[in-house]
Specification:
The chain is of the alpha+beta class and 200 residues long. The chain has a single domain (23-199), classed as Ribonuclease Rh, Chain A (Alpha-Beta Complex), CATH 3.90.730. 32% of the residues lie in helices and 21% in strands. The protein is built from 7 helices and 6 strands, in the order αβαβαααββββαα. It has helices at 4-17, 43-48, 74-85, 104-113, 121-128, 181-188, 193-199; strands at 28-35, 54-62, 137-145, 151-160, 164-167, 176-177. A hairpin with an 8-residue loop joins β5 (164-167) and β6 (176-177). The chain starts with a helix and ends with a helix.
């Protein structure tokens, strides 16, 4: 009987604190934002046409042993939910046929970064709208080449897991953990104050 009391106390504590609603986290996940930048011919320039500061790019995670989410109506559920929120979180399409709108671009991001990794449309939306900083840190940086400065920060991500670095891909972000990333970036970045403030 005595051994049951701690379990009951734990369950009551979890119920009060909302433990049952805490999402399971992967080993690495990040909410990624493109930075607005009028220079060059890049996805950042497209973002600058839609926002003066940032565009939400998508939520990405590394998931192991997860089955793809194969629900038949996922597309309809995802598109209906996305239409309601995309403008409020700057989650615009960069595709030419729907530039600044919705929802083919967002659906492609979800299919590759959400459905393929086991997230339902509503799970994905819950994560892409989670702007709270609790338990998150800068854990992703993507750069693009610039003729005047070797690397320009193109995208940043906040989430959990080790710091990752990637070259910019105009379609999807493919982060890879680079153990000596900070040292590499110190050697290669120019003295742009905003870049240095992100890294150091």
């Amino acid at each position: 009987m005595g051994s049951k009391i701690p379990i009951i106390v734990l369950l009551i504590g979890c119920f009060i604190r909302g433990c049952f609603f805490v999402r399971a986290r992967s080993e690495w996940e990040s909410l990624v934002f493109m930075l607005s930048d009028n220079s060059g011919n890049s996805i950042n320039q497209k973002c600058a046409q839609l926002s003066t500061q940032f565009c939400t790019f998508g939520f990405t995670l590394r998931a192991r042993h997860r089955r793809p989410h194969l629900r038949r109506d996922f597309e309809e559920v995802f598109v209906n939910a996305t239409r309601r929120i995309y403008a409020s979180i700057n989650w615009f399409s960069f595709d030419s046929h729907e530039f600044g709108g919705c929802c083919d671009f967002q659906k492609t991001i979800y299919e590759e970064e959400g459905a393929e990794k086991g997230l339902s449309p509503l799970d994905y939306h819950a994560r892409i709208m989670d702007f709270f900083s609790h338990g998150k840190q800068l854990n992703f940086l993507s750069t693009r080449s610039d003729e005047y400065c070797g690397n320009v920060v193109a995208a940043i991500g906040f989430g959990t897991g080790p710091f990752s670095y990637s070259r910019l891909d105009d379609r999807l972000i493919k982060p890879k953990t680079v153990p000596s990333c900070i040292e590499e970036m110190r050697k290669r970045t120019c003295s742009n104050a905003s870049v240095n403030s992100l890294l150091f």
